[in-house]
Amino acid sequence: MTPGQYIAAAKDILIVLAIGIVVFLVYRAGEDRIHASDLNGLRDELKQQRTILGGWQKESNDATNKLSADVAAIRATPPVAHVWVHNQPIPQPAVLPSPTVTPSAAGAPAGGVQPGRGADVDGARRDAILDAFKKRWEERLAEWRAEDSQWPKP
Q: CA 8 to CA 6: how far, in whole Å?
């Protein structure tokens, strides 16, 4: 063998080695490698998330318990008997007399009054309606407060 052939063979061997090294490095770069420090960091992150989730769960449970207590308190309140301003029949009001001039077109007669003697409307029914309205909206407001309390706070 001549020295030129030795040089050509060495050159071919170096090219094959270089290609092998590049393939090995590309393979190692795409490999998934997990180290102990990666696992420890993951454990710490999971521990923090578990703590945060536990706090949120506690807030949610507290809000649900508060909502139950609020709704029970709202429903347990007895209806309030209101004292309405108008609780005596009023006398028939004085009405101005009808005008003496007759209108040319048929119109409503002037000077009419509302029928009835001005007696009170059933106060118990009015109180029940008012109480139902108040309780419905108090319960709805309690639900909104509970939803707001359940929202995660940083």
A: 5
